[in-house]
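New to this. Help decode both lines:
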Amino acid sequence: MNNRDRLIEIMTERDLDRIELARLLSVKKKDIDQWLLSNESKEHKEVPDMAIELLQYKLDL
C-alpha cells in the first residue's frame, strides 16, 4: 500500500475531512488536496512518509 492509499484509509476509518487532516498535520488544505489527486494529475504530489507517521502517532494507530 502506498502513502496515498494509506492516507485515504486513515481518513475513512477516522471519518476525517481534508480540513481536519490539514490541521492534524499542520499543513495547508491545498497540500492535502494535491496528495489525494490521481498520480496522473500534473498537480499531484506524493504524500510524505512523515505525514503518515505523524498521523499514526497522533491518532494512536
Q: What stands out?
A: The chain has one domain: 3-58. Residues 22 and 30 are 9 Å apart (CA to CA).
